[in-house]
Write a structure and sequence with these properties.
By secondary structure, the chain is an all-alpha fold. 77% of the residues lie in helices and 0% in strands. It is globular.
């Protein structure tokens, strides 16, 4: 008897890998590009960030659902299963690849925590009506707290490694 496609571990792992890069990995790069526009000026950032607000609501919500939330929920859920099943064998086999693999899993857990915090502090606050627009003033106020600076530094480093290793892994396995 053959396993249904939606329970096939090989296909689920391939979908996990694919959704980590497209569309979610692409969104992370886009998000970082928007955020880096602040390097030009506060006005540049406000214009770039408000461009998202100018997308018609139905299209924006469909994009958020299918390009961000569903892929990250699937990637995160399956990633947690993968991380829980992973065996750390760096004491037995002290190879660089094993350490990179373990660090991929460590950064995954860091990303679950920091991404949850980030979504709560931005999108969640907008949903609750506490914030109307994410602009330079909001970001400056949010990042004026040393704890938030630390959280976002850890978040950025974990995301950079996780995505970079994911790209490398994707290139090797696809």
């Amino acid at each position: 008897k053959r396993t249904p496609w939606y329970l096939d571990w090989f296909l689920l792992r391939k979908l996990h890998s694919l959704l980590g890069l497209f569309p979610f990995g692409a969104f992370v790069v886009f998000h970082l590009l928007i955020n880096s526009s602040v390097l030009g000026s506060a006005e540049n950032y406000d214009f770039a960030a408000s461009a998202i607000e100018r997308i018609p609501l139905v299209i924006l919500k469909l994009m958020e659902l299918f390009m961000i939330f569903l892929p990250i929920i699937f990637h995160g859920f399956l990633g947690v299963i993968i991380a829980l099943q992973s065996e750390v064998n760096t004491n037995q086999y002290n190879y660089l690849r094993n350490h990179l693999y373990v660090f991929q899993r460590v950064t995954a857990w860091i990303l679950v925590a920091t991404l949850t915090y980030h979504i709560t502090m931005t999108w969640g606050m907008k949903l609750a009506g506490e914030v109307h627009v994410i602009n330079t003033a909001f970001v400056a106020n949010h990042l004026s707290k040393p704890m938030n600076q630390l959280i976002y530094m850890i978040f950025l480093l974990a995301a950079a490694y996780h995505l970079a290793y994911g790209l490398w892994n994707f290139a090797c396995k696809w």
